[in-house]
UniProtKB/TrEMBL annotation:
Family note: Belongs to the MIP/aquaporin (TC 1.A.8) family.
Keywords assigned: Membrane, Signal, Transmembrane, Transmembrane helix, Transport
InterPro entries with a match to the protein in the record: Aquaporin-like, Aquaporin_transptr, MIP, MIP_CS
Keyword match Transmembrane helix: yes
Lineage: Eukaryota, Metazoa, Chordata, Craniata, Vertebrata
Native source organism of the sequence: Takifugu rubripes
Cellular component GO terms held in the UniProt record: plasma membrane
Example of a GO MF term: water channel activity
Membrane topology: Multi-pass membrane protein
Subcellular location: Membrane
Annotated protein name in UniProt: Aquaporin 14
Length: 276
């Protein structure tokens, strides 16, 4: 199955969508964070608006190809809740990190003053310690990823709510909340690209562990406690590597698990006969 997926055109379209989407996102956010010549450092408003608008645009451009995840933390949350397989998760994360490095590098080459590249990097303020910044990153990422999962659940029910706008607002809210305390990264790739370009690695682990912990907590808590299809059986199915879709269908339709399983097996047998 993995070999057939790698050979498919859709797989590579999704991979390049993540690469290009992360490149655009990182370059937009960094561009909004850098002050012009002779200007004072910008506040959190510019990057907050930039990231929200960029996410809405990228969701429209690449949403149907890869989901426009453009964030390793979100990808790992989807993997932890069994919404994404291991192969795609690893390829997406590699593409996201490469796209972030290319975006940061391209913007660095365009800077009139290379010293302003220090504004690229997420830093822990001197008034705070790494543990406090870690907590802020967990909180910011939690609310952002929880919003993403909630929007996806509403889309499954064909809800006409403009979900991309809600996701964009959640990104902006995270930056407004965390900018003064940790930089409001919420995205390990967004922190990795500038760190490589600027060569600044102090407390870099905060911007991996914080977003990843917050994202996984948000995904797990939504899918197994707050979602309409949440149930103990669904959690057990995830932990035991069983088919979650069957449990979700049974929970949503009110049918018994055995009935849904039999219907799924009949559908698979019918599709095999049609292929033959």
């Amino acid at each position: 199955m993995a070999w057939h997926e790698i050979r498919s055109r859709q797989f590579w379209r999704a991979m390049f969508s993540e690469l290009l989407g992360t490149l655009v996102l990182v370059s937009v956010v960094l561009g909004a964070s850098v002050p012009g010549p002779g200007e004072a450092p910008v506040g959190p408003l510019y990057p907050a608006v930039a990231v929200g608008v960029a996410i809405v645009a990228l969701a429209h451009c690449f949403g149907e190809m890869s989901g426009a995840q453009v964030n390793p933390a979100l990808t790992l949350a989807l993997l932890a809740t069994r919404r994404l397989d291991v192969l795609r998760a690893l390829v997406y994360i590699a593409a996201q990190c490469l796209g972030a490095c290319l975006g940061a590098g391209a913007l660095y080459l365009a800077l009139p003053l290379k010293t302003t590249a220090e504004h690229f990097v997420n830093k822990v303020p001197m008034q705070l310690n790494a543990a406090q910044a870690l907590g802020v990153e967990v909180l910011c990422t939690f609310q952002m990823v929880f919003t993403v999962f909630s929007v996806e659940e509403q889309r499954r029910r064909e809800n006409p709510e403009p979900g991309n706008l809600a996701i964009g607002f959640a990104h902006s809210a995270g930056v407004l909340l965390g900018a003064r305390f940790s930089g409001g990264s919420m995205n390990p790739a967004r922190s990795l690209g500038p760190a490589i370009v600027a060569g600044f690695w102090e407390n870099h682990w905060v911007y991996w562990f914080g977003p990843v912990i917050g994202a996984i907590l948000a995904g797990v808590s939504h899918d197994f406690f707050f979602a309409r299809s949440a149930s103990r059986q669904k959690l057990v199915a995830c932990l035991s590597c069983k088919d979650i879709e069957i449990v979700e269908t049974a929970s949503m339709t009110g049918s018994s698990l055995s009935t849904v399983t039999q219907n799924a097996m009949r559908a698979k047998q019918g599709s095999k006969q049609d292929n033959n």
